[in-house]
Design goal:
By secondary structure, the chain is an alpha+beta fold. The chain has four domains: 80 residues; 33 residues, no CATH class; 97 residues, Immunoglobulin-like; 179 residues, Jelly Rolls (Sandwich). It is built from eight helices and 20 strands. The strands form three sheets. Strands 1, 4, 5, 9, 12, 14, 15, 18 and 20 form a nine-stranded antiparallel sheet that branches. Strands 11-10-13-19-16-17 form a six-stranded antiparallel sheet. It has a five-stranded antiparallel sheet with strand order 3-2-8-7-6, with no helix packed on it. Helix 1 packs antiparallel against helix 2. The longest helix has 56 residues.
Length: 446
């Protein structure tokens, strides 16, 4: 039998229902199918079959183009999705980080130039930094200039070294950083005195101060330098004075050294059943860890416990006023003895005072006492009976006259009440400082 003819031996007609869903057949394909079924002549049937093949090829081509386009679109959408998703994730993180709760706050992270900060805090910090560079809020000192006018004020800042020196034009560098102009503000009290105010960034707490030309004053604190220029040099070669506030505490203090900070924090050996005087040989200097505990207002507190009966927890804080004056105003004490220097300090100091943050307790309750040594005894300055660490403060115009000793120290004592031998008596200290207010005379520049 012919191999081909075996396929044409079924005489029955196709009677099964057409399983193709007619609704899915395009009009073109329906026409071609009808032609194949109904045309009388073979040439028309063959033409219909040929067109069907061509149509199928055309359809496949279109399908391939659509598939390619869809693949490209899918990749583009994926990339955009990834990008948008990351933006949403970043914004959500920034929103959480900035405690942002609505779109208005989110928009507030965008500045006028369109720069977007990651968090609202970041933008506020940047704004605050710029404001602090411009808004003069901190007083540096009050100056009597004797120029009989409202003189102009210029202030320049640099770091490291002697950074600024007087010149006929502008301050120049002297081995330090670049010199920057500071947006300072003069507060005129009258025609012969003013207060110099600078932005917070340039605030100085305990600078050394020197008059370096007729109308220029150099302030140095650690690596930071301010040059203050008042008015005209030609009119300023007269005696001037400066009102200045100095704060002594235990910042930068190194145990067993008075180079970095001349003040000392003392404890006593053995059982203390009475208040020990500054010259008692049982006093010893606290180690670095204890000094760190009282040098700033934080949660790190100094603690002293005493269990023996009648023993009093007590510490001595020795503030070296004479050395502080000499370091800040060395020109004032040239050729003077210690006695003469102390007399001069007392004359220049208008008032002084101290602040301590402390608490004390024993078996009977809470009490902490702050005293100052004078005339071979302790004068009670302040006390409180709180169970919390709170401020003890005292200030007086005659403070230096009363409490500056013959070698230039102010000796302050903090103590709790004595132990009963059963329950510990405790003394806690958070921060301690002494502040004095002085008027410093500057001699005319020769």
């Amino acid at each position: 039998m012919n191999e081909i003819s075996k396929y044409y031996r079924d005489p029955t007609h196709i009677t099964e229902e057409n399983w193709v869903e007619v609704i899915k057949i395009s009009g073109t394909h329906k026409t071609l199918a009808a032609w194949i079924r109904e045309k009388m002549y073979g040439i028309d049937v063959r033409e219909a079959l040929a067109r069907l093949v061509e149509q199928m090829s055309s359809d496949l081509y279109d399908d391939r183009q659509i598939a390619i386009a869809l693949d490209k679109l899918a990749k583009e959408l994926q990339e955009k999705w990834d990008s948008d998703t990351q933006k949403i994730i970043d914004e959500w993180k920034n929103t959480i980080g900035g405690v942002t709760v609505d779109s208005e706050l989110i928009n507030s992270r965008i500045d006028l130039h369109g720069f977007v900060y990651k968090t609202l805090k970041e933008r506020l910090d940047d704004m605050q930094s710029k404001i602090e560079n411009l808004d003069a809020t901190e007083s540096v000192f009050k100056l009597t200039h004797n120029q009989n006018c409202y003189p102009t004020l210029r202030v320049f800042y640099s770091t490291y070294g002697a950074a600024v020196v007087p010149s006929e034009t502008e301050p120049t560098g002297a081995g330090g950083s670049e010199v920057n102009y500071v947006h300072a503000e003069p507060i005129y009290h009258d025609l012969d005195s003013l207060t110099v105010k600078v932005p917070f960034k340039y605030k100085m707490v305990n600078p050394t101060i020197e008059r370096i030309s007729e109308n220029q004053y150099l302030l140095v604190e650690d690596i930071r330098t301010l040059l203050v220029e008042i008015g005209s040099k030609s009119e300023a070669n007269v005696e001037t004075t400066m009102e200045f506030t100095s704060t002594l505490d235990y910042k930068n203090k190194v145990a067993k050294s008075t180079v970095e900070n001349p003040s000392i924090f003392y404890f006593g050996a053995g059982g203390w059943t009475e208040l020990k005087k500054p010259g008692d040989p049982s006093w010893g200097e606290f180690i670095a860890r204890h000094i760190d505990e009282i040098k700033s207002e934080d949660n790190n507190n100094f603690e002293m416990l005493r269990y023996d009966k009648n023993v009093i927890p007590q510490v001595l804080l020795k503030f070296n006023i004479l050395e502080d004056f000499k370091r800040k105003f060395p020109f004032l004490f040239n050729g003077l003895s210690a006695t003469e220097s102390i007399i001069k300090i007392k004359k220049m100091t208008s008032k002084a005072g101290t602040e301590m943050f402390a608490k004390g307790s024993n078996a009977t309750g809470n009490r902490v006492t702050m005293s100052a040594f004078a005339n071979n005894n302790y004068d009670l300055l302040a006390a409180h009976a709180s169970s919390d660490i709170k401020k003890l403060s005292f200030q007086h115009n005659a403070f230096m006259d009363a409490y500056l000793d013959t070698i230039g120290n102010v000796n302050l004592l903090l103590n709790a009440e004595a132990s009963d031998g059963k329950t510990a008596s405790s003394l806690y200290i958070n921060y301690a400082k002494l502040k004095y207010f002085t008027t410093v005379p500057f001699a005319p520049i020769k």
